[in-house]
Design a protein that fits this description.
With 329 residues, the chain is of the alpha/beta class. It is 35% helix and 29% strand. The protein folds into two domains: 121 residues, Rossmann fold, CATH 3.40.50; 199 residues, Dihydrodipicolinate Reductase, domain 2. The chain has nine helices and 15 strands. The strands form two sheets. Strands 14-13-12-11-7-10-9-8-15 form a nine-stranded mixed beta sheet. Strands 3-2-1-4-5-6 form a six-stranded parallel beta sheet, with helices on both faces. Helix 2 links the parallel strand 2 and strand 3. Helix 1 crosses helix 8. The mean pLDDT is 97.
């Protein structure tokens, strides 16, 4: 499969500003169609974004034989349904994070895609940025010693929360699901699977967590600290601390650097070095990797990783409700 025909399921903002441009630029992608529940909205988006076809239902998109893969940026609560329906239609699926609302739902999605012989991947685009790849390599190499602590933060302020799906608990809203998932993913990528979670949250009037702080215990010698928010100023940063030094990916763009040049800093005792990276589009790199996987190359981020992330997110949510630590199976 040299060039993948793509359909976009929903005219979400993340699709319009990031993924659709990536699909247009990717060397192995061909943007075929966009769908919305309202045909005029799909037609307007198709006209504005230069997409050949517009559909007034997701079912119509899945019926298009030119569409080989779908990108799903729908609200979190709809990920399971439309992933399984896409798989039943024989379409490969790139779905926004979090892949589901629970580890059990995610496992059902994986099983459904496997039965239909289609590929499923969670759209954690930051994992495909060269800076992230290098940070994980350095952490694993022993250059900063044995890693004992990871600290990760991702906060931003939604200026108009009224009507925003991030504040709707029925749609899987809340800070942990929306941006805390990045921090959890990074901590797991460095340290593996944690054993225990403890979290506290500030719950807003709609019932979702608007600000959450968490602690993950991996064993008696390794911890991770994270915070996330929908109502605080923009902060994106992470730090990996080893017995011999530290690695820091600085604010404000640790997870969403755009296409600007980036850097990370490695410090050992009195010595410090900066590793610089030329600007790149991590969304385009993600799309191209997914297309390469459909052509037979290994999938760098298998969907089973999303199950692990959701186990941790579920434990953090449970800890908020109980006010106590929660073990992670």
């Amino acid at each position: 499969m040299d060039t993948v025909g793509w359909g976009v399921m929903g005219a979400a903002r993340i699709a319009e500003i990031a993924v659709i441009p990536a699909l247009r630029q990717a060397r192995n992608a061909r943007l075929v169609a966009i769908a919305s529940r309202a045909l005029p909205r799909a037609q307007e988006a198709a006209r504005r974004l230069g997409i050949p076809k517009a559909y007034g239902s997701y079912e119509a998109l899945l019926d298009d034989p030119e569409v080989q893969a779908v990108y799903i940026p729908l609200p979190n609560a709809l990920h399971r349904e439309w992933t399984l329906r896409s798989a039943a239609a024989g379409k490969h699926v790139l779905c926004e994070k979090p892949l589901a609302l629970s580890a059990e739902d995610c496992e059902a999605m994986i099983s459904g895609c496997r039965r239909q012989g289609v590929t499923l991947m969670e759209a954690f685009m930051y994992r495909f940025h060269p800076r992230t790849e290098r940070a994980l390599q350095i952490a694993a190499s022993g250059e900063i010693g044995e890693v004992r602590l990871v600290r990760a933060e991702f906060t931003f302020a939604v200026r108009t929360p009224r009507g925003n799906i991030r504040f709707d608990p029925a749609l899987g809203g809340g800070a942990l699901f929306d941006v805390g998932c990045y921090a959890v993913n990074l901590c797991r990528a460095v340290l593996g699977e944690p054993r225990e979670a403890l979290a506290f949250a500030c719950t807003g009037p709609t019932g979702v967590d608007e600000v959450t702080g968490g602690l993950l215990r991996f064993d008696d010698r390794r911890l991770a600290v994270l915070d996330c928010a929908l109502t605080l100023p923009r902060r994106q940063e992470y730090e990996i601390v080893g017995t011999e030094g530290t690695l820091r990916v600085p604010a404000p763009d640790a997870f969403l650097p755009g296409t600007a040049d980036t850097e990370l800093r490695v410090t050992r005792a009195a010595d410090s070095r900066i590793v610089r990276f030329s600007g790149t589009d991590q969304y385009q790199r993600m799309v191209e990797h997914f297309g390469d996987a459909l052509a037979g190359r290994p999938l760098a981020l298998p969907p089973e990783d999303a199950v692990g992330n959701l186990r941790v997110l579920g434990a953090l949510h449970a800890s908020v409700r109980r006010g106590a630590p929660v073990s992670i199976a």
